[in-house]
Specification:
Helices cover about 30% and strands about 20% of the residues. With about 325 residues, it is α/β, with parallel strands linked by helices. One of its GO terms (molecular function) is fructokinase activity.
């Protein structure tokens, strides 16, 4: 089972284009990058659980119910009686989202006492992102969790920079990202994030990743595994909403590695690497055709795609 630790929240997505000042109608969707990845994994027939915290409020109840409906293991989610469930407003400019996040919410209040470390006995991988580093106690909690997981199970990290959460504290953010990178076996990073970190003196080649995926939007992705660097072309679609495309890519990447039984040892040849990358690009592209961050297509919807059939070998899609 793949475990993710991090935020789950409500995305209020504007139904009209333009600034929030002018938008009058929003759609409520479940979101939060680690939650998006977890749901994507389950939709791709990969068992997954989420470690997180929501408010003891109607939005928190809604989110946990939605996770349960999707088939996500919810045993590791805690309800917070002090803090409200996280809420984000998403304003659409074309199909590219901008986020307004709010502070003082339940997922930033994730404490070490909230963690049942017996999950390490069941986990085939631990996945995390950067958002919870922005505040305490969640920062210390996540670092302690990945510290205890290191060496026991593979660890994946989506850099997922949210500068709005770090105003006036960019140096702290970069230090935390560098620390997180030192724990990671698998890393996903956007090309813009990669450029940002390099401009701030971070040398990603100095880290001992087993696999790194660089997403490039319309230009596809690059998968780096040891000496192998594979450029993977994108799938051309007309996007409706790109809110969860990066998370869809992450979910598909991890799911593919799980399905072809490469998570534990992470040793792939060039053909296998290309197969994994093509599948991740396909799922990310198809996810943009739906609104909301939980937009990963289900495995059953992918039967017509060769890229899916050659990866999802633990399901009925196996050719």
């Amino acid at each position: 089972m793949i475990f993710s630790i991090g935020e789950i929240l409500i995305d209020f997505i504007a139904k009209e284009e333009g600034s929030l000042k002018k938008v009058s109608t929003f759609e409520k969707h479940a979101g939060g990058a680690p939650a998006n990845v977890t749901v994507g994994l389950v939709r791709l027939k990969t068992p997954a659980a989420l470690i997180s915290k929501v408010g003891a409020d109607p939005f928190g109840e809604f989110l946990v119910e939605q996770l349960e409906k999707e088939g996500v293991n919810i045993d590791y989610i805690r309800f917070d009686k002090e803090k409200h469930t996280g809420v984000v407003f998403v304003q659409l400019i074309g199909a590219k989202p901008e986020f307004i996040l709010y502070d003082g919410v339940a997922y930033f209040n994730l404490k070490i006492d909230d963690i049942d470390f017996s999950f390490l006995e069941k986990a085939s991988l631990l996945h995390f992102g950067s958002v919870l580093f922005a505040r305490e106690p969640s920062r210390s909690t996540v670092f302690e969790v990945i510290k205890r997981a290191k060496g026991k199970i593979p660890i994946s990290y989506d850099v997922n920079i949210r500068l709005d959460l770090w105003r006036g504290r960019e140096e702290d953010m970069i230090k935390d990202i560098e620390k997180a990178l030192s724990f990671a076996d698998i890393v996903k990073i956007g090309d813009g994030e990669l450029e940002f970190l390099e401009n701030h003196g971070v040398d990603l080649e100095s880290f001992n990743f087993k696999l790194m995926a660089v997403t490039k939007g319309e230009r596809g992705s690059e998968i780096i595994h040891g000496e192998i660097k594979t450029e993977v072309p994108s799938y051309r679609v007309e996007p409706v909403d790109t809110t969860g495309a990066g998370d869809a890519f992450m979910a598909a990447l991890l799911s593919a590695l799980w399905h072809i039984d490469k998570l534990e040892h992470l040793e792939l040849n060039e053909e296998e690497l290309l197969r994994v990358g093509r599948f991740a690009n396909l799922v990310a592209a198809l996810s943009t055709l739906r609104r909301g961050a939980w937009s990963v297509p289900r495995a059953e919807e992918l039967k017509e795609y060769k890229e899916a059939r050659e990866v999802l070998i633990r399901t009925e899609l196996r050719p």
